[in-house]
Write a structure and sequence with these properties.
Blueprint lengths: L3 H40 L1 H13 L5 H19 L2
Length: about 80
């Protein structure tokens, strides 16, 4: 029969797996929100124009940084979804 420590380890492992699964589901949901946000901004000419102005006005925020971060998150999303 397994020791109490082994049972405790089993519960810890199950808890970690469950937390990780929830975190992945949360990540997927947030990225899908980002995809929708991007589509909403690009589909609305006023929002798109204002976003371009904002990017030009903010010295810490340029299009290449935005695209790099988006592509980084997209690569993870694609990996997780098997795309």
């Amino acid at each position: 029969m397994a020791t109490k420590e082994a049972w405790a380890d089993r519960e810890t492992m199950r808890s970690l797996f469950q937390n990780l699964q929830q975190s992945l589901e949360h990540y997927m949901g947030r990225f899908e929100e980002l995809i929708q946000f991007k589509a909403d901004v690009l589909d609305d000419s006023n929002r798109k124009t204002e976003m371009k102005k904002l990017i030009d006005e903010d010295p810490d925020w340029d299009l290449s940084k935005i695209l790099n971060k988006y592509n980084e998150f997209k690569a993870i999303y694609d990996y997780l979804t098997g795309v």
